TrEMBL record:
Domain of life of the organism encoding this protein: Bacteria
Record domain Amidohydrolase-related: where: 50-424
Protein's UniProt name: Dihydroorotase
Pfam family, one: Amidohydro_1
Organism from which the protein derives: Thiothrix eikelboomii
Biological process according to GO: purine nucleobase catabolic process
GO molecular function: allantoinase activity
Taxon lineage: Bacteria, Pseudomonadati, Pseudomonadota, Gammaproteobacteria, Thiotrichales
Family matches, as CDD domains: DHOase_IIb
GO cellular component: cytoplasm
Length: 445
């Protein structure tokens, strides 16, 4: 493997921005500082640009195996690296769902030589695989994923005794999707009785309400508090849920929470133009919810940002039948760019974005030697240009479903380059055709 010298970069790392050069050898960061004269097989001038640790995305649905008409590890990791994501944690709702060691191993095998980014996979929890959770190979799974009352789930877990057993016996972090199904079903029926199948998408956030999210999360957290277990709640989407999460530092708390760029960018006003494209679970809610989530993130109630990339075919997303339109949106390519809009608006600092998309994720999931720009760490890096705009478009979407909810949006920043394990994989608007060398993430256990 060749060496690479990045010169004149503004390094955004561990709460500071400093100008420095970075020397990369054999995939790792070997030196950081003023490195004039350092020989390297390739030099990248980063003048005027910002070098961040690559985003570690704690929630993607890359659809392999079984749902590869919607996405696969090749196409979705192309989109990920084009968006500055260098590592991802993939959810278990594939076909078959990832409910055993064998299926975890199969996912690992599928990623070798095909994934452009580094990978980790969740084991799905159900009432039937608790023994496996107890004896889980802790390097094979990045976490255990539990669906508390959501219709997207292959396996729902609603019984508090089962939840308690999962929380107390899991040797790895439990990450939960929380929405109360009975309440959602009630809401669905009341609007179906008015509109039939053509329920306006504008009502998605009313049907999959803040109350539904709150109830399921509160139920799970009651169990977690009771047994003093750690749990991570995925994609918080409403102001109401925020009261469940303390603003203590991540190291001091057992309960952590994730938010996604789309909840910080879109609001229910966007359903009018986007219709079913914007349908995702939990639903995007009101402008007030969006403002509260931004505030909750700034104050530390929310700990990390993940994309919740969930691709579905454009055709599937375009019908008027509310119930048949699948929930989820391709997000990896535009997630970081969306957050950089919050930077451009003066809401988040670059250091804050790095903390929430990289440092905190590496810490929460105990990921070894990634998530920071440090000597000896893997060179997973993203170079962003804050002055070169980029208009998102379907034509440039790398995800297999080939669309984006940001279509036509004029991002004020762009992703100039992405390096995974020291190799340039995305550069000046082009994917570099290298053999994919994403690695299995290693965890400190
Ligand atoms: O939790 C989920 C699952 C996802 C999917 O399509 O896999 N789509 C969603 O909108 N939410």
């Amino acid at each position: 493997m060749s060496s690479l010298l990045i010169v004149n970069a503004q390094l955004v790392n561990e709460g500071r921005i400093v100008e420095a050069d970075v020397y990369i050898n054999e995939g790792r960061i070997e030196a950081i500082g003023a490195l004039t004269g350092q020989a390297a097989s390739q030099v990248l001038d980063a003048k005027g640009r910002y070098l961040l640790p690559g985003m570690i995305d704690d929630q993607v649905h890359f659809r392999e195996p079984g749902l590869t008409n919607k996405g696969d590890l090749i196409t979705e990791t192309r989109a990920a690296v084009a968006g500055g994501i260098t590592s991802f944690l993939d959810m278990p709702n594939t076909e078959p769902p990832t409910l055993s060691n064998e299926l975890l191993k199969e996912k690992h095998q599928l990623a070798v030589g095909r994934s452009l980014a580094n990978y980790g996979f969740y084991l799905g929890a159900s009432s039937e695989n608790i023994e496996l959770i107890k004896s889980l190979d802790v390097q094979l799974a990045c976490g255990v994923n539990v669906f508390v009352g959501s219709s997207c789930a292959s396996k729902l877990v609603d019984d508090p005794d089962v939840l308690r057993e999962i929380l107390t016996s899991s040797p790895v972090l439990v990450a939960a999707h929380c929405e109360d199904m009975p309440l959602i079903a009630e809401n669905e029926e009341s609007y179906r009785s008015i509109y039939g199948d053509a329920v306006p998408f504008e009502l998605h956030g009313v049907i999959r309400s803040d109350e539904a999210c709150y109830l399921a999360a509160a139920r799970l957290l009651e169990v977690a508090h009771d047994c003093k277990a750690r749990v991570h709640i995925l994609h918080i989407s409403s102001a109401k849920e925020l009261e469940l999460f303390s603003a203590a530092s991540m190291a001091e708390k057992l309960i952590t929470a994730e938010v996604c760029p789309h909840y910080l960018h879109f609001s229910d006003e966007d359903y009018a133009s986007q219709q079913g494209l914007l349908k995702c679970n939990p639903a995007i809610k009101t402008i007030e919810d969006r403002a509260a989530l931004i505030q909750g993130l700034l104050e530390g109630h929310l700990d990390i940002i993940g994309s919740a990339h969930a691709p579905h075919l454009f055709t599937e997303k375009q019908g008027s039948n509310y119930f048949k339109t699948p929930a989820g949106m391709p997000m990896v390519q535009d997630a970081l760019l969306s957050l950089l809009e919050n930077y451009q608006d003066g809401i988040f600092s670059l250091e804050f974005i790095v903390e929430k998309t990289s440092h905190a994720v590496a810490q929460l999931f105990s990921i070894q030697e990634r998530g920071f720009i440090r000597e000896g760490y893997w060179a997973d890096l993203v170079l962003v240009d804050l002055e070169q705009p980029h208009v998102a478009s379907q034509a440039q979407a790398f995800a297999k479903c080939a669309w984006t909810p940001y279509d036509g949006y004029p991002f004020r920043s762009s992703i100039a380059a992405t390096l995974v394990n020291g190799e340039l994989v995305w550069h000046e608007g082009r994917l570099l055709e290298r053999s994919p060398r994403g690695q299995a993430l290693q965890f400190i256990r």
